[in-house]
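We both want to read discrete structure tokens more fluently, so let's practise on a single case. Once you have written the record down, we can walk along the chain together.
***
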Amino acid sequence: MIIQTNRLILRELNTNDAINFYRLNSDPEVLKYTGDRPFNSERAAFDFLKNYPANNYEKYNCGRWAVLLSNTNEWLGWCGLKYSPEKNETDLGYRFLREYWGNGYATEAAMASIDYGLNKLNLNKIVGRAMKENIASIIILKKIGMQFEKEFLMDGIYPAVQYSIFK
């Protein structure tokens, strides 16, 4: 366990999460504003997760974390920080199964992730990005205290916005 909030546990993703990770990334509504392609199989999700920890958790002390309900251990999605060495920045990301949208879980997990990054990792800045059409994500970025920084084209195609928070 990395973080615990009133309702949630955030922990490292692992290969046991493959079926839920695959289910999450197979929902077109979940992927609508990500620019990501769905995994073509549960095995592809398993292979991704098998290689993920070494590339993120161990090198940078952060990563995308599985989000579970603390009272049931039910898998809701993922949230967390990701360091990009090529940009020399840490970004916040989150993705939840559709049946859990609208319950404040993304906001709660995002706030905890920001607190972890600023206070445990002593980061000076964390960014959050969303496609301009993804109003729900933009609302979350604002709720957790991030400030508008710029507009840009995500992947050179999609109109997007970047928000940031500083220590």
